[in-house]
Design brief:
By secondary structure, this protein is an alpha/beta fold. The chain is built from six helices and four strands, in the order βααβαααβαβ. The chain has helices at 17-24, 46-50, 69-79, 84-97, 113-125, 143-160, and strands at residues 6-10, 53-57, 131-135, 163-168. It has a four-stranded parallel beta sheet, sandwiched between helices. Helix 6 (143-160) links the parallel strand 3 (131-135) and strand 4 (163-168). Helix 3 crosses helix 4 (84-97). The longest helix has 18 residues, at 143-160.
């Protein structure tokens, strides 16, 4: 896969899409074979690989619910050793791109699912990943919010040239 491409991984529920992403990101280890992501073996080089990739896994939350999206983004920037001025600049840009102004200072627990998914995607972009793994990012969303998330993914891919590995059982996502 080349930089800035979108790779869609489609299959019915239970087909192994999420398991595959978990192996590609080093969360799970394969029983056999080997995996190479950006020159790293996710099983052996998970920490190094984590600086190069990010993921949003369906309904799994990576944000702290009692913090605001803004505070979560700052915290994630600190985890990646990104200088504060750089994180602030990224947050400001993402607030505009992802239309977060109305809820950037609302605790995550008070956000709608669609708002939370947008924030999850932003959180996954703080470290400027070369590959963004999106595991069923529209699951459980209403049709209007699904379309908004799809539009954001297209924009993300086009503007930031981030390679996106997207799984779904919904052909409309693909």
């Amino acid at each position: 896969v080349e930089k800035g491409e979108v790779l869609a991984f489609i299959g019915p529920n239970g087909a192994g899409k999420s398991t595959t992403i978990k192996m590609l990101t080093g969360i799970l280890y394969p029983d056999k074979g080997s995996i190479n992501i950006l020159g790293f073996n996710p099983t052996k080089d998970r920490k190094k690989l984590s600086y190069e990739i990010s993921s949003v896994i369906g309904q799994k939350e990576q944000l702290w619910l009692h913090l605001t999206p803004y505070d979560n983004f700052k915290f994630i920037g600190t985890m990646y050793d990104i200088p504060e001025p750089v994180v602030e600049k990224k947050i400001k840009e993402f607030i505009e791109v992802f239309d977060l102004n109305d809820f950037i200072n609302t605790p995550v627990r008070g956000l709608s699912l669609g708002q939370r998914i947008r924030c999850e995607i932003v959180a996954a972009l703080i470290n400027e990943p070369k590959i963004l793994f999106l595991d069923e990012p529209t699951i459980g969303l209403d049709p209007v919010v699904k379309e908004n998330i799809r539009t954001l993914i297209k924009r993300l891919n086009k503007e930031y040239k981030t390679t996106i590995f997207l799984t779904s059982h919904d052909i409309s996502d693909i």
